[in-house]
Amino acid sequence: MFHPIVEYLLAGGIHKTTIIAILSIPLIHLIINIGRYIIGFKIQVGYSIIIMVYLFYFLGTLLDPYQTTSNIFVGLRYGFIFISAITLFSISIYQIFKKVVMHYYPKLSVVIGATTIITTSLIFIGRMLEDPILTSINPIIIICIAILSEQITILYIKNGSSIGSVFEYFWTIILAGIAYIFLALPIFEDIFLQYPWLILIVLLSNGLIGKYTGLRITEYSRFNDLLLEKEHDEHISDTEE
């Protein structure tokens, strides 16, 4: 049994995945904040990572005829295929029009509009292979693809293709995959549908992380020599006294 409010919404025809998508927004941000500010992942912030998580999630639901649960393996496999294809295609199209004298937004619109080619191609390949996922793509996934294409292009224009930017983008995808796994686990779905008020604790946790000013976990290894040297100096100082 779910929480009475959730039961009321479900009885009124509200889809289960819709409720989960709404309740999961603060949880996804919590996972991102932990990864960025506690662990120390260098990721590209913005809502592109949120779009990636939902792209994973809704692709995973296509295997379920009622689309009430998201299959983690399906979501990750097809999600990485789509993200890789969108990334390579968007950057390639932008490079073609990079030197064309156009206003910024029309040029960006050309790149976003061109994603219809890669989307249609994947659906066509799915039809040839009789793939149940690629032939079941819904409008929500298409919207995610269009928004993600825009974000990828903007990030590429802003940061270029340096090694640092590539690694940041890579860790962004990895963290999006981790957030999706948490979101798609049945136990997390059940917990949030039974106790939706937990969202308040998640919001509070996001606020507390925002106040955190200590070292990230990954920074301990980077500054390990300095910390050891400081401890050594303090030990010598204590000995002399």
Describe the structure in your own words:
It is a single chain. This protein has 241 residues and is mainly alpha-helical. 77% of the residues lie in helices and 0% in strands. It has eleven helices and no strands. The protein has helices at residues 4-11, 16-39, 48-61, 72-97, 104-129, 139-159, 163-184, 186-194, 198-210, 217-222, 224-240. The chain is flat and about 55 Å long.
CA distance, first residue to last residue: 66 Å
Largest sheet: none
* Number of structurally distinct domains: 1
SSE arrangement, N to C: HHHHHHHHHHH
Q: Which structural category do the helix and sheet elements fall into?
A: mainly alpha
Low-confidence stretches: none
Task: Give the overall shape.
Answer: flat
Average pLDDT figure = 82
Q: What percentage of amino acids are in beta strands?
A: under 5%
What is the tally of helical segments?
11
- Kindly state the number of beta strands: 0
How big is the Rg?
A: 22 Å
Q: What fraction, in percent, of the residue positions are helical?
A: over 70%
